[in-house]
Amino acid sequence: xxxxxxxxxxxxxxxxxLFVHWGLYAVPGWHEQIQWRRDIPKAEYVKLMDRFNxxxxxxxxxxxxxxxxxxxxxxxxxxxxxGFCMWDTAHTEYRITNTPYGKDVLAMLAEACHRRGIRLCxxxxxxxxxxxxxxxxxxxxxxxxxxxxxEPDLMKYVDYVERQIRELCTNYGQISSFFWxxxxxxxxxxxxxxxxxxxxxxxxxxRGYGPGDYATxxxxxxxxxxxxxxxxxxxxxxxxxxxxxxxxDYYSDRLxxxxxxxxxxxxxxxxxxxxxxxxxxxxxxxxxxLRRIGTWFARVKESFYDAEPASHLTANKExxxxxxxxxxxxxxxxxxxxxxxxxxxxxxxxxxxxVLNTGAxxxxxxxxxxxxxxxxxxxxxxxxxxxxMGAETLVLKLEFEDLDAALKATAPAPExxxxxx
Length: 421
Prior knowledge:
Layout lengths: L15 E5 L13 H4 L4 H4 L13 H10 L4 E7 L25 H12 L2 E7 L28 H18 L5 E5 L7 H10 L4 E2 L27 E5 L16 H13 L3 E6 L9 H17 L7 E2 L10 E5 L2 E6 L8 E2 L9 E4 L7 E6 L4 E2 L2 E6 L11 E6 L3 H6 L8 E2 L3
Parallel strand pairs: 1-2, 1-7, 2-3, 3-4, 4-5, 6-7
Antiparallel strand pairs: 8-9, 9-10, 10-16, 11-15, 12-16, 13-15, 14-17
Helix pairs in contact: 3-8, 5-6
């Protein structure tokens, strides 16, 4: 994948981050879009400010979890669709410092991130259900009609957005990326230009007021075997909500490991989200999921970092490959179907083959394997722990003496002929 060859290239080194959706919507504990989805009048919703008092908020605990999970950056929701600002902005009274808590939670997080060397990224919603000028009928996630007293004027609202992003990119130290949300359907180049002026090296996503640096697939693993442009996929540990939900249904560790594995093996980045509770703590079930994934990730991490997507080396669609020097890593993001796999048309054996998760050795040899098709002799990997490791994503490590020479000597696979029954 083509890099930028400037300070934005941090994005290709720090591959895995924590997404945090936190705001007033944590108080009812139902969904981050509860105001819109339940048609709560603005006059009622704003009363949540009086109940928002996250006395247990500790950014150090959040960053401890980031490191336990194997993550290297954090993306924080400064303003979600409800318009409530999680920093001490001078441009609206609708902010965290006007709650009983009274402190700037973003400032606290920024200080801890910069001190601990964890990159800070910021999320900012284009829709705003609170601001009187914000209604944008050309975009999604908009109120059905203005709030009483609103005066819709998109360009006045854009001026407000400009003042706020100037504040965010001036008062909180280095900001590594900016995550716009919900494309507004209008191109206003000065906003991204301001971000780049204030924060040289910032990555900007593709959901804002103009073209960005990277794509952001959400809640899904895209088709394909290799990304052709910088990509950061995002997923939440909770099936129903990005913000805190009291009665959440959580994804299995196995599904999250598989999606993380596939995105990274395709050359992308991954943001995994949690929704903190109203008191500022991360739900223990969410934290436990991140820690368990982190234990797995620590054992297979080498297959992603400083490695390149290499799935083009095999016609086998059951797996993905990454490569680092003379080592090839075989990934099974959708699980292992059986105890053996053939990597046609590779026709040379590694000098060592192991299960990266455990270090256990497996058999690896070039042989003719009977199948539904008439084909040649190719690399077969056998004795895979298909059942023993069903709870986590399997990654294999193949160590070759001279991989480039071996691949040059590998003839293309002949056209397969299906046997008749």
